[in-house]
Design a protein that fits this description.
48% helix, four-stranded mixed beta sheet, alpha/beta, six-stranded mixed beta sheet, 11 helices
Length: 259
């Protein structure tokens, strides 16, 4: 794996770290493919939760402008979207494990939108989100136009994208854009504790919850009810369901295995 992405897997938790701090963890081709590879590795059975964060002062500043302004390096926007960012979004949403975005600093452009497509977004108090695209004559990509209006509403999403204003972590929390904002000195411990908690929960039930949420974006009521029935039956046939019921009856803490 490229040095631009660090991956550590311990005790059921995969930690993915963007590691280009000298350019605020902005994406180039190498980093995009390395992240895809890391997400593929998280499909392994021994991974039960994933945390994505950044090394240094920023979470991710989006696309590396140096790459797209160098004629010898520029892969072109079709490749950047179809081969780099879009597969990342799909891999995060299709990964049958909960994914936590631990936003440790500025998340701009594609960096902001990749964070927002994760299952749970936790931001440090000094972090900020910026839909920076209009500043250079582009439109929001990386599923930003899909997720952001659903998170904060059409009007506020439209303003955020057109004006490209900085949204502080506190404002993002108040808007419902993220799960929680945490003081800088407590942030990393809280994000890791949240990921650890997810890793101890019934993994298949969480995966089914994630699928139900994914499909709810496009289903009508009848379709969603049918999907819930299907996924609930699947969940009820797991060992973790049996353990959860037994623990409840025996008034003890469940010991879920993710099976």
């Amino acid at each position: 794996m490229s040095d631009s992405i660090q991956l550590e897997i311990n005790n059921g938790i995969a930690e993915i770290t963007f590691n280009r701090p000298q350019v605020f963890n902005s994406f180039n081709k190498e980093m995009a493919f390395a992240l895809q590879d890391a997400l593929d590795r998280c499909k392994k059975d021994d991974v039960r939760a994933v945390m994505i964060t950044g090394n240094g002062k920023a979470f991710c500043a989006g696309q590396d402008i140096q790459e797209i302004t160098d004629p010898q390096l520029n892969p072109g926007f079709e490749a950047i979207l179809d081969d780099h960012y879009n597969p990342i979004v799909v891999k995060i949403r299709n990964l049958e494990k909960p994914v936590v975005a631990a936003v440790n600093g500025v998340a701009a452009g594609a960096g902001a939108n990749l964070a927002l497509c994760c299952d749970i977004v936790i931001a440090t108090e000094s972090a900020a989100f910026i839909q920076a695209f209009s500043k250079i004559g582009l439109i929001p990509d990386s599923a930003g136009t899909f997720f952001l209006p659903r998170l904060i509403g059409f009007g506020k999403a439209s303003a955020a994208m057109m004006l490209a204003n900085k949204i502080t972590a506190t404002e993002a929390d108040q808007l419902g854009m993220i799960y929680k904002v945490v003081k800088d000195e407590e942030f990393l411990a809280f994000a890791k504790a949240t990921t650890e908690k997810l890793a101890l929960l019934p993994t298949k039930a969480l995966a089914n919850t994630k699928q139900a949420l994914n499909e709810s974006m496009n289903n009508n009521l009848e379709q969603q009810l049918a999907l819930e029935s299907k996924l609930q039956i699947q969940s009820a046939n797991t060992a973790d369901y049996e353990e959860g019921v037994a623990a409840f009856m025996e008034k003890r803490k469940p010991n879920f295995k993710g099976k």
